[in-house]
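Thread: sanity check for a docking pose with glutathione

Original post by kr_44:
Hi all, I'm comparing my docking run against an independent structure prediction. Below are the sequence and the ligand SMILES. Could someone generate the full complex and paste the structure tokens? I mainly care about where the ligand ends up relative to the chain.
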Amino acid sequence: MLKVWGRITSINVLKVVWTIRELGLPFERVDVGGAFGGLDTPGYGALNPNRRIPTLDDDGFILWESNAIVRYLAARYGAGSLWPEDPRERGLSDRWMEWQNVEFSPAMVPAFMQLIRTPPEKRNQAAIEQSVARAAQVAMVLEQSLAGQDHVGGSRFTMGDVVAGCAVDRWLGLPIEHPHVPNIRAWHERISARPSAQGLLKQPLQ
Ligand SMILES: N[C@@H](CCC(=O)N[C@@H](CS)C(=O)NCC(=O)O)C(=O)O
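Reply from moderator J.T.:
Ran it for you. Here is the predicted complex with glutathione included:
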């Protein structure tokens, strides 16, 4: 059975859990990281030398880095669904995983950390404003790409929807003024309605 290490309040754990649920696979999740601790033990360090979450164990095969885990699971268990078999269709999905990792999350995370994980008296208003503005700018790339299509890679739900969807779900949940993004909001409703997303998306941020 699949085993995932990591608290569910981590976006990187969330995307892995959503992937596994979408694939309909049995799994066990172990709460480590954050207030749970457990990342500084020799045992965890042997599994994941970065001492980060998530870590996946698939029958003794250990993998870390959340987007690599999503790709692995999709390729192994979701060929033709989460993992498009046509290389072009797969590329159009996969690019949104890179976009999440190198464009959108770096823009948005400072605002998330300030507004959700920092007490009000310790917040840096300038950092929040800069992050909110940059995230809005980056989000418009997705907004335009979603015009006339139901999912990030095209007509079907694929791994790119999971990964970009987790980040966008957080962004939409932030107590900030968002730009006008009707295509993103419609897509977010669509993906949040999936049975596999229940209890994972649209949750209070913490
Ligand atoms: N690039 C890594 C980042 C992993 C990461 O930074 N995880 C955070 C949680 S989102 C973590 O381990 N934080 C320490 C903690 O939770 O104690 C991945 O995508 O898996």
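Strands lie at 2-5, 27-30, 55-58, 61-64. Hope that helps with the comparison, let us know if your pose agrees.
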